[in-house]
Design goal:
164 residues, alpha+beta, Ubiquitin-like (UB roll), DNA polymerase, domain 1, 2 domains, 5-stranded mixed sheet, 5 helices
């Protein structure tokens, strides 16, 4: 198959590359842009490990072609920390033992950030419903919920700039 030119804006930086039209956004982010924080799990949009934010909406990047994201602002888990300063949600995940194997963590972080950006007053019931769309085989979700509760005041403080 032929590669076609592609320009993506990820975390405020422009990436110029060439990919087949059928290459997913997840694979392009990882393989062409060297941003490996976005994980690829089921490749069917079920597990949520590949969740990123595209133009303010959470997206399963394994279900989106890279060319569909051209001209959009894409944010990955790498956008959350500012150098050595972790985002409050990342800190809360560590402090509340919401990470075990860590494979699902980037997807959960982006899912939660997206949920709070779209509804800063999200209820716990709605948050639990949102969290149920991602799979975690290690933590049992309770520590993830605890982490979100403890970070809720600072969730929008750092890393929420759509251009970051």
């Amino acid at each position: 198959m032929d590669n076609h030119p592609l320009e993506l804006t990820i975390n405020g930086k422009t990436y110029k590359t060439a990919v087949e039209h059928r290459k997913t956004l997840a694979d392009t982010i990882r393989e062409n842009c060297d941003l490996t924080g976005t994980h690829v799990g089921c490749e069917h949009g079920v597990c949520g490990a590949c969740t990123v934010i595209v133009d303010g909406k959470t997206v399963r990047s394994c279900l989106m072609f890279a060319h569909q994201a051209e001209g959009c602002k894409i944010r990955t888990v790498e956008s959350l920390a500012r150098g050595d300063e972790l985002h409050p949600l990342q800190e809360a995940f560590i402090e509340n033992h919401a990470i075990q194997c860590g494979f699902c963590t980037p997807g959960f972080l982006m899912l939660i950030i997206g949920a709070y950006e779209n509804d800063p007053d999200i209820t716990e019931e709605n948050l639990i419903e949102v969290l149920s769309s991602n799979l975690c085989r290690c933590t049992g979700y309770q520590n993830i919920i605890k982490a979100v509760r403890s970070a809720s005041g600072g969730l929008l403080a750092i890393g929420s700039d759509a251009d970051a």
